[in-house]
Amino acid sequence: MADTMDMPRSKRLKALTHEIHDRLDKSIMEASSFDSLEGYGRFAGVQWTFHRDIDALYDDAGVITLLPGLAERRRMDLIAIDLADIGLATPLIETPPVFLPDQPTDTATALGWLYVAEGSNLGAALLRKEAAKLGLSDIHGARHLAPSGGGPAAHWRVFTAALDAAVLTSAEEDRAVAGAKAAFARVQALANAALC
Predict the structure, then answer these.
(1) Domain range 32-195, CATH architecture
(2) Which residues are paired to 140 by β-bridges?
(3) 0.90 exceeded by pTM
(4) Concatenated DSSP letters of 51-64
(5) For residues 134 and 34, is the Cβ–Cβ distance under 8 A?
(6) Tens-digit pLDDT profile for residues 16-70
(7) What is the DSSP letter of 17?
(8) Taking a C-beta distance cutoff of 8 angstroms, is the pair 48, 190 a contact?
(9) Which of left, alpha, beta for 60 (phi over 0: left; psi -120 to 50: alpha)?
(10) Do residues 79 and 47 lie in contact, with contact meaning Cβ atoms separated by under 8 Å?
């Protein structure tokens, strides 16, 4: 692969996580996650668990400084309501979240995890159409897949502009990449456990 250091951070993260991202997308679709409400429920459970892992980041002052408006991007509660709409509770998780409230957070690592979370909004447009085939909508069962007011592309551009503008050292850049890879690996592990 060509040197990625000259790329904007968002493009660099995309290039360096392409394989693990592609594998995850295939896992979700091959698991027939949108063939039935039962499959969708398992998918939404994976989503909720991942967002539980990162929920503390949406209140982290250091991260919010770099990503203004981050708190409005939080989706864990929407996923919980979606699960309730289809008669399911949130998953029972015995382990603590990856990021804990009121604990020090490495901001560079957090940026990588949030890149994965926010990037999933782009793919949500396709998943939203699949959810609609199951009778789900932006107000029943698929709220967390609904686009923001400006639409997913505009939402993503605002996020990546802030992500790209953050000033990081070379070591922090590496931690951001490691964070994104760890986030994809976490979702893959959740998908393997719940969907396969």
Answers:
(1) Up-down Bundle (1.20)
(2) 137
(3) yes
(4) HHHHGGGGG-HHHH
(5) yes
(6) 999 999 999 899 888 888 999 999 999 999 999 999 999 999 999 999 999 988 9
(7) T
(8) no
(9) beta
(10) yes
